[in-house]
Amino acid sequence: MEIVPNPNRSSSEGLVTSTNASSSATATASSPGSSSPSPSRYESQKRRDWNTFGQYLKNHRPPLSLTRCSGAHVLEFLRYLDQFGKTKVHTQMCPFFGHPNPPAPCPCPLRQAWGSLDALIGRLRAAYEENGGKPETNPFGARAVRLYLREVREMQAKARGISYEKKKRKKPPPQPHGGGAGPSDHPHSPPPATGATA
Ligand SMILES: [Zn+2]
Fold first, then answer.
1. How many whole angstroms from 163 Cα to the centroid of ligand 1?
2. What is the pTM (predicted TM-score) of this model?
3. What are the GO cellular component annotations (predicted)?
4. Which of 12, 91, 106, 147 has CA atoms 20 to 30 A from the CA of 2?
């Protein structure tokens, strides 16, 4: 009596789950990601302005340290920048005084436009505090600087015949923007077909 081992015991030979991960087209994982370290334009401009001001302090005679810098020094700095200005500011003697688009050249000086100075001061003021300066002693926030900027603004507005007044944002008039129709007003379903064709 031979004991025939049952050959039909199909031993469960490991259910070969065919892990044929046919990763045929998964090679697109090379997305660079948006981790570009380039700072915003505002940030880089701010850094540049801060460096310019630091350079100005360094070249100042007598030497001037940031901690001893006052609003008066900031004004000095702004006036110094005027020599690099590109904005014609007419004197009262100029026939084009108050003329926004002079038809001819004139010998009036070029200045920094008020808008540029205003933005510059805003950036330097922020940079000062980001670099450890205390808000209470921020020379860029000094009253003298504010007054100076206001003065420049008024003078340039007159001389250049332009207004810096921000356009007051009027509340947009209530537009009769056809909002009548209900949100989910279903179109009328077609009338039931009466009279079924025989
Ligand atoms: Zn002029």
1. 17
2. 0.64
3. nucleus
4. 12
Chain centre distance of CA 65 = 31
Q: Measure 79 CA to ligand 1 centroid, in angstroms.
A: 19
| Gap from CA of 72 to ligand 1 centroid (Å) | 28
Query: Which residue matches tokens 């005679």?
Result: 61
d(CA 111, CA 80): 10
- Mean of per-residue pLDDT scores for the chain: 79
Q: Which helix (H) or strand (E) segment is 32 a member of?
A: none
Q: How far is the CA of 71 from the centre of ligand 1 (A)?
A: 30
Longest CA–CA span in the chain (Å) reads: 133
The pLDDT tens digits for 43-61 are 999 999 999 999 999 999 9
Asked whether the predicted pLDDT for residue 136 surpasses 80, the reply is yes
Q: From ligand 1's centre to the CA of 115, what distance in Å?
A: 19
User: Residue 80: how many CB atoms within 10 A of its CB?
Assistant: 13
CB 39 within 8 A of CB 46: no
What's the gap in Å between 10 CA and the centre of ligand 1? Answer: 104
Give residue-wise pLDDT tens across range 157-195: 999 888 776 655 666 666 555 544 444 444 555 555 555
Give the distance (Å) from ligand 1 centre to CA of residue 89: 6
Cα–ligand 1 centroid distance for 40 (angstroms) = 37
